[in-house]
Amino acid sequence: MKKFLSLCIISFGLLTQAQTTTILDQNFEQALIDLNIDSDATINGQVLTADIENLVELDFSSLDAIDFQYLSPITDFTGIEDFTALEIINLTGQRYISISDSNADFLNQNINLKEIYMYEFDGGAVHIEFSQLDVSQLELLEYIDIRGGQRELIIDNPNFDYSGITIDIRANGLLRPSADNSSYSNSFMAHTCIKVNDPEDAVNQNTPYNTWTIIDNEFSSYSFSSNCNLSQTNIEKLNGINIYPNPVEDIIKFSNPHQIKINHVEVLDIRGKSVKNFNNPNQKINLSELKSGLYFIKINHTLNIKLLKQ
C-alpha cells in the first residue's frame, strides 16, 4: 500500500509539473502578467499551461507605455508554442520587441494562427525589430501586418496551397529622387521580399496567388523570390530602368539597358491608389485612359518612377 501511495504521489508531482509552461524571457512573462494572463502574477520563469492553452487572442496593443524606455526588449518567445488555440496575435504593444533571424520561425508551432500584427505605431512609440519572419507552417493564415521596415517574409511550404492571404507592408517616409527628379530609388524605401513556392506564378498572379491581397503604398515595395538574397548589383540594375517620354500623353516606353525582365507594371495615383496594372508589358504601355496629373509607375513591385500625364 505504501509503495502504491508513493507512486501516486510521484505521478501527481509529474502531472503538476506538466501543467506549467516555461517562459524564459522575463519581459515576455511581465507582459503576460500585465495582461492578467499569468494568474500567479509572479516572475518565476513559468506560467500555468491552463492559463494559456485556450487563449484565442494574445493582444499586446493594450499594454501601457509607462517606463517603456527603460524596458529591455523581449527577445525570446519560448512558451508561445503552448498557446495552442491561438488564432490572433498582436505584438504591436508598448514594448520593445527584437526578433533575430535565428528565431524568425517562433510562431510556426501555433498552427491555428490566422492573424498576425507586428507593425510600428506612428511616431515611433513602439519598436519592433526583425528582418525575417517565417510563417511557412501556418496553413490557416489569413492576415499579416508587418508595416514599417525592410523585411523578409517566408511563406513557402510546398505542402500547403495557401489562399486568401492579405499582407500589409505599407510604410511611412519620403521617396528619394534621382539627380534629375525623374525616378525614385527603392533603396530608400521599405522593401519586403516574400519568399514563396513559385515566384513566377506569384508575379503572374496564378493560383493561389490570385487570391492574395498585398497592401502597399508609394513608400513601400515588394518582390517575390525563392531565396530573397537580392544583391546590391541586381538592385542597381533594376534602378537603371527608366521611362520616356516624361511628361507623356498616351504611350510610355521603357529604357532598360540591363535587359531586366519586366513582369509587372503598376500605375498609382498621387495618393498611392492603384489605377492600372500591366502583366508582361513588353516594351511599352498605353495610358491614354488616365486623366492628366502626377502618377507613380511601379516596376516589378519595386522601382517607383514619377510620371506626369498631360
From TrEMBL:
Signal peptide coordinates: 1-18
InterPro entries, per the entry: LRR_dom_sf, Secre_tail
Keywords: Signal
Keyword Signal among UniProt keywords: yes
Limits of the Secretion system C-terminal sorting domain: 243-302
Protein name (Swiss-Prot/TrEMBL): Por secretion system C-terminal sorting domain-containing protein
